[in-house]
Design goal:
- The complex is a heterodimer.
- By secondary structure, chain A is mostly helical.
- Chain A has one domain.
- In chain A, about 75% of the residues lie in helices and about 0% in strands.
- In chain A, strand 1 and strand 2 form a beta hairpin.
- The longest helix of chain A is centred in the middle third of the chain and has 32 residues.
- In chain B, strands 1-2 form a two-stranded antiparallel ribbon.
- Chain B is globular and about 75 Å long.
- Classes of the chains: A mainly alpha, B mainly alpha.
- At the A-B interface, helix 17, helix 18 and helix 20 of A face strand 1, helix 5, helix 6 and helix 7 of B.
């Protein structure tokens, strides 16, 4: 390990340091009490500073040509950089969104932000991995903090249940992943993704790839490994759900990109049909199950499953077009999903989350900007112009048609039509009906800032997507 | 040629929407005034574009071209030609009419209403002006969202169902068109070397389709447009949407949005897939005739005046479809002109229906009777609009439908002969409507029925003027579209057009 290695991994390093600083500051401020009586904003600002420092490092470090580090186990290239920036944006918005909620509900502030930062580090590490062991370490660093975040509301049995479910199923999925790593090693004799690029096809390798898919597919909430998502989303604290719904996707899809379109591009005829089948199952089931939901958290859980299906289209198509489309989609998804959750975070029913669709009624009269933001994010999630979701889907479908996967593209667009039904329910709700008497709107500058960022993201990616398009093309250009 | 007019045309409604939105929730009159001012400004600019448009040229005018997403071959390319110049003007004419008419007809949440209408106007204008496939699709889909909210928030009792039905139906058609657009782009990349979504660039050279691929892609485009028009049997969203939307919104739905479908057929299907258009033309002509007769027959049976006018509108759109697929200059010219005429006359009829419903709260025609005695001016204006819809000589409707039938008789005489019965049906249902509402003994509870107010007259006057002006002096309107229609039909007739003969062939040095 040299200074060069540490410098290449500076974003991750800075984030871990920030997490430690947040924890120490918290312990110091609490002065030994389990729950601080007066919660200051110092932890929030410290976490935000860490995110900004890591983002600055990710922007400043050269990513072209690709810089390998740690004996080729880690790489900093265009994909790393874009995934890092998306993950850091998610972390920043996640911290801003969480601040008022965490203080209102007396969650442990320091732990909350430290876990968010560590989880983000894991997602970034997955995006930077050139070795299956590093990918596994990244997956663990991503998911362990998420289990804790889901269970962080100690007095809520729903939250405890969500955390336990997530942990048990997640551990199970991770075991599959490790077993897959072992099979791949047995078949090819190496764990280096660069060296695996020439591995000949064999049943053992095929089995290994299938098991790797299970591990990553669980984190991405792909059907049939999605069973945890609705329950965990419904039970976990709302800001934690907002963060995990995006962070887990970033890590999982960065990992899928590193393994499938990049390392095993030569075996595409083997794994692409599997990915297509998973994509179809995920899109169809996610969208159909979302239709009947009356709880916004559950609705958005199924919606996030459906979006995993859309992103899988890009993985199945592979190549520069498919990979670039996935990277673009992740950035847009982060903005629109955080925006939708952010509006929900404004509502409060006497200290409990107001998370039914009916609770949104009449929001337009009380907080017009929030209502417009929700409508915009719902339109974007549905993939309609002029929001970013449309351009993101356009690129995915272009990749699928370019790879000759017409059936996949047709199912993708038809399920998008299905999704319009429930997203429009979400967009319509704030503009109609009477205000529920027990739901209050809790304004806060931090939530407002996060919503402004999310709205700007959705609009910029939709109306002026030129620079991001060029960036993802450049990042994925080395893939055939 | 000034290269900002069309962008300004799209930007004015958006700016107007923002300004109207900023007026504050307690001053609906201010919001209406700001919105009306913006819509009238757009009308002025569109009128200037229409007047300075050079007839006799088939190429695009007022062209604007900017790199939008160069990495993906998507450009910001606007332009007008004979197909779109009058439709653009029609959009800017009907929107202020709708905003002004809404003063008496939409009383709740007036600010949100005018903001949404202006956003819809921007989407409509963009749809008619875009010359890049993705840009077109962006505007095409973007106008769905305001329309969904206009129906879902300001409509009648069953508005939510009607709105979501409208949205899902039209979305289902257009997403397949999106895939077809991408397929055209990929094929264009193979043939042209540089992948692009730019329509003139794609038309510059034959794309070398296999017949099966061409038929499939033509189908994807045509179904999207047919749903929007709508074409029988894809019309089932129409009666609910037209009847549940507030009448001023139906003015925009029937008068403008339906035209986007017919326009799409002319703009995209004919030049991109000429062989498929010729092969599938008879089917579309047959569907058009079925639509004409079915719409007319069902309209006759309706008691609700909005549903009557909705099915009547379906019948008239059938004429326009018949004209397009007759594929000769007279018929296509008739269709292009009839799009404008139908927008004006249907717009006027729905505004009048809105006035009647706003005064009495009654939508059934048999709940009226003898209104002409109490409101002679209203009856007179209605009669003019009905005459236009019946295609009586001296009104604009005559010019359009006569040309369509004249052209269609040359290429598809049987269909044309059958379609003439549609005019008979129109006479039956429209005169029955006039008879039930305006004639007969005046009902006692309608004795105090107020006649047209000055404001309502001001709203209707431009439409009546258009009906008579185009009826007596159709020349300027026909001149503007003729060159483009001729070039379009030349390109469609030659199955493999040589480079340069297709309309808007890419000029040297204009590589996108």
């Amino acid at each position: 390990m040299s200074w060069h290695d540490l410098a290449a991994a500076a974003p991750e390093t800075l984030l871990v340091l920030a997490a430690c600083a947040v924890l120490i500051q918290d312990a110091w401020a609490a002065g030994g009490a389990l729950e601080a009586v007066r919660q200051s904003t110092a932890a929030t600002w410290l976490a935000l500073a860490g995110v900004c420092a890591a983002a600055a490092a990710a922007l400043w470090l050269p990513s072209s040509p690709a810089t390998p580090a740690f004996a080729g186990m880690y790489v900093r290239d265009g994909i790393t950089r874009l995934a890092d920036l998306t993950a850091l944006g998610t972390a920043g918005a996640g911290v801003l969104l969480a601040d008022p909620y965490v203080r209102r509900t007396r969650l442990p502030v320091g732990e909350y932000y430290a876990l968010v930062l560590l989880s983000t580090t894991g997602a970034m590490l997955m995006a930077a991995s050139r070795n299956l062991i590093v990918l596994f370490v990244g997956l663990e660093v991503l998911s362990l903090p998420l289990y804790v975040l889901a269970a962080l509301a100690r007095r809520s049995t729903r939250s405890q249940e969500a955390g336990l479910k997530y942990l048990l199923l997640g551990a199970f999925a991770t075991a599959f992943f490790v077993y897959g790593v072992a099979l791949v090693y047995g078949a090819a004799g190496t764990l280096d993704l660069g060296a695996l690029a020439g591995a000949p096809a064999s049943p053992l390798l095929g089995g290994g790839l299938a098991l790797l898919t299970i591990g990553l597919g669980f984190e991405a909430a792909m059907v049939p490994f999605h069973g945890w998502a609705p329950d965990v989303y419904e039970g976990a604290p709302l800001p934690a759900v907002a963060f995990m719904s995006v962070a887990a996707k970033i890590g999982a899809f960065a990992g899928l990109i590193r393994v499938f379109p990049e390392a095993f591009a030569h075996l595409a005829p083997t794994w692409s049909p599997m990915m297509q089948a998973l994509a179809i199952a995920t899109m169809v089931l996610g969208n159909l199950a979302a239709l009947g939901q009356t709880n916004v958290k559950r609705l958005l859980a199924y919606s996030s499953i459906a979006h995993a299906g859309y992103m899988l289209i890009g993985v199945a198509a592979g190549g520069a077009a498919g990979t670039g489309a996935v990277l673009f989609y992740l950035a847009v998804y982060a903005a629109m999903n955080l925006g939708a959750f952010g509006v929900l975070l404004l509502l409060d029913r006497r200290g409990v989350e107001a998370d039914r669709v009916d609770d949104l009624a009449g929001l337009a009269a009380r907080a017009p900007w929030a209502a417009w933001t929700l409508a915009l994010c719902a339109v974007s999630l549905a993939g309609l112009p002029p929001a970013g979701g449309f351009i993101a889907k356009l690129y995915l479908f272009r990749a699928a048609l370019g790879a000759g996967q017409t059936g996949l593209a047709v199912i993708g667009v038809l399920t998008s039509v299905v999704s319009v039904f429930y997203y429009m329910r979400l967009a319509y709700a704030p503009f109609a009906g009477d205000v529920p008497s027990d739901v209050a709107v809790r304004r806060s500058a931090m939530t407002g800032a996060a919503l402004v960022l999310a709205t700007a993201g959705v609009l910029v990616y939709g109306i002026l997507p030129g620079s991001l398009t060029a960036a993802v093309q450049q990042a994925a250009a080395f893939l055939k | 040629m000034s290269s900002w007019a069309l962008s300004a045309l799209i930007a004015i409604p958006v700016a107007g929407a923002i300004a109207a939105g900023a007026t504050g929730p307690r001053r609906p009159a201010a919001a209406r005034a700001v919105a009306l001012a913006a819509a009238l400004t757009a009308l002025g600019l569109a009128a200037w574009v229409w007047i300075t448009f050079r007839p006799g040229e088939s190429a695009l005018q007022f062209e604007e071209r900017l790199a939008w997403i160069p990495a993906a071959g998507i450009g910001y390319h606007l332009g007008v030609d004979g197909l779109s110049v009058s439709l653009t003007a029609l959009v800017t004419l009907l929107v202020p009419v709708a905003i002004a008419a809404s003063t008496d007809q939409v009383l709740e949440r007036a600010r949100g209403f005018v903001v949404t209408v202006l956003l819809l106007e921007a989407g409509l204008l963009g749809t008619f002006l875009a010359q890049d496939l993705v840009l077109f699709y962006v505007f095409w889909e973007a106008m769905l969202i305001p329309m969904y909210f206009l129906i879902a928030l300001w409509g009648g009792p069953a508005r939510r169902g009607a709105a979501i039905k409208f949205l899902l139906y039209t979305m289902a058609g257009s997403v397949l068109m999106l895939l077809a657009i991408v397929a055209v782009y990929l094929q264009g990349g193979r043939v042209l070397g540089t992948p692009t979504f730019d329509l003139p660039a794609l038309l510059g050279r034959p794309l070398g389709w296999t017949p099966a691929a061409e038929a499939l892609l033509f189908g994807a485009f045509a179904v999207a447009f047919a749903i929007k028009m709508p074409v029988w049997p894809l019309h089932t969203w129409l009666p609910d949407a037209y009847a549940e939307a507030p009448p001023v919104v139906t003015v925009l739905l029937a008068g403008l949005m339906a035209k986007a479908g017919a326009y799409g057929l002319l703009r995209f299907c004919l030049p991109l897939f000429p062989d498929a258009v010729r092969a599938w033309g008879p089917l579309f002509a047959a569907l058009a005739v079925v639509g004409v007769l079915y719409g007319g027959a069902v309209a006759w049976a309706q008691a609700d005046m909005r549903r009557l006018l909705a099915y009547g509108s379906l019948s008239h759109m059938g004429f326009i479809l018949l004209g397009i697929f007759a594929l000769n200059v007279e018929a296509v010219q008739g269709s292009v002109v009839q799009m404008i005429n139908h927008g004006v006359s249907t717009g006027a009829l729905f505004v009048l229906a809105g006035i009647l419903i706003a005064r009495t709260g009654r939508a059934r025609t048999d709940a009226y009777g003898g209104v002409a005695a109490a409101a002679p001016a209203l009856a007179a204006v209605t009669l003019i609009a009905v005459a236009s819809s019946l295609a009586l000589p001296g009104t604009n409707g005559f010019v359009g439908e006569f040309l369509i039938l004249l052209g269609a008789f040359q290429t598809r005489p049987v269909y044309a002969a059958l379609a003439t019965f549609g005019i008979v049906a129109a006479a039956a249902y429209l005169l029955a409507f006039v008879g039930r509402v305006f004639h007969g003994p005046l009902r006692s509870e309608l004795r105090a029925f107020p006649d047209l107010r000055p404001r309502e007259f001001a709203v209707l006057a431009p439409l009546v003027a258009m009906i008579l002006w185009v009826g007596f002096v159709p020349g300027p309107l026909l001149d503007r579209s003729e060159a483009t229609v001729r070039a379009l039909l030349r390109a469609t007739a030659a199955s493999t057009p040589a480079p340069g003969t297709a309309i808007h062939a890419r000029r040297p040095g204009m590589v996108p």
